[in-house]
């Protein structure tokens, strides 16, 4: 329970001031009790139910799947990309009427699945998603943030979940600034190992410009992007329920963001202290009339 008009409680300061200077009677005591409950009523006590359905929250968020060549590294079996697809499917299986979009990205974003809550279609498309036709290098996180902002432009607060290996970025200040400016909360599911692995693409090992074999390692610098945008940072795990932590964070943030005046589960109970106030007022009047009758006799 909480109160919408706390300022009315200052009126209760009258009570100790009166008792300091004047003698009290039973009638006065009842009147002050009545006054106290009247003030409580004016303060507008409200009760909020803790049960808020996901339907009422109208949750919607964006999933972004890294499609760069580094996701073909096999330090996570069968490779980072296939592992990411499995995790996306796990996440989808835990949803209940939330709308979700899927973007793929490397050096630019690709819309794979527009916003939907048709999870059967979503799962089917994920199962048939291939990285073979993507031959771009690098990962551009700024562009994926811009796309998320456009997709969720009708939302005050926007949620993005990245499935990635962290790319090659070491500084995410530009992305952090854009995310905070546009109320985008970024959760990161980072996939890879510190040891890393070579990348095999089209049956050949990927090499740099000097002809050296590229070894892709987990980049933990991206943790700053989630930490500084109120998101959750996680690294890959074989646990099927690990993504529940990210989903719970999104739900909790959405609940917190709802304005009190718009909550459908708000119940005003001002009439209860108002009724108690009336009862004590009548007791005070009854006590006063009774003493008056005795004095007349």
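^ structure tokens above, recovered residues below v
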């Amino acid at each position: 329970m909480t109160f919408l008009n706390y300022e009315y409680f200052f009126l209760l300061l009258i009570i100790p001031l009166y008792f300091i200077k004047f003698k009290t009677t039973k009638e006065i005591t009842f009147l002050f009790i009545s006054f106290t409950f009247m003030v409580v009523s004016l303060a507008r006590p409200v009760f909020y139910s803790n049960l808020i359905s996901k339907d009422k929250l109208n949750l919607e968020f964006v999933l972004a799947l890294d499609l760069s060549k580094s996701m073909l590294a096999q330090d996570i079996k069968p490779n980072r990309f296939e592992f990411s697809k499995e995790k996306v499917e796990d996440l989808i299986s835990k949803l209940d009427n939330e709308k979700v979009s899927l973007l793929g990205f490397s050096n630019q974003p690709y819309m794979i699945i527009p916003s939907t809550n048709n999870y059967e279609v979503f799962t089917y498309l994920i199962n048939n998603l291939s990285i073979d036709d993507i031959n771009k290098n690098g990962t551009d996180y700024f562009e994926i943030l811009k796309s998320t902002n456009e997709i969720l432009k009708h939302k005050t607060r926007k949620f993005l979940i990245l499935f990635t290996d962290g790319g090659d970025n070491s500084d995410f200040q530009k992305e952090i600034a854009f995310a905070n400016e546009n109320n985008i909360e970024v959760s990161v599911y980072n996939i890879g190992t510190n040891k890393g692995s070579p990348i095999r693409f089209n049956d050949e090992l990927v090499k740099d410009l000097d002809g050296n074999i590229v070894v892709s390692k987990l980049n933990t610098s991206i943790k700053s992007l989630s930490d500084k945008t109120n998101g959750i940072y996680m690294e890959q795990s074989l646990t099927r329920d690990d993504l529940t932590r990210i989903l719970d964070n999104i739900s909790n943030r959405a609940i917190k963001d709802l304005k009190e005046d718009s909550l459908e589960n708000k119940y005003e109970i001002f009439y209860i202290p108002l009724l108690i106030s009336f009862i004590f007022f009548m007791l005070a009047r009854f006590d006063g009339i009774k003493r008056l009758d005795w004095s007349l006799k």
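The mean pLDDT is 85.
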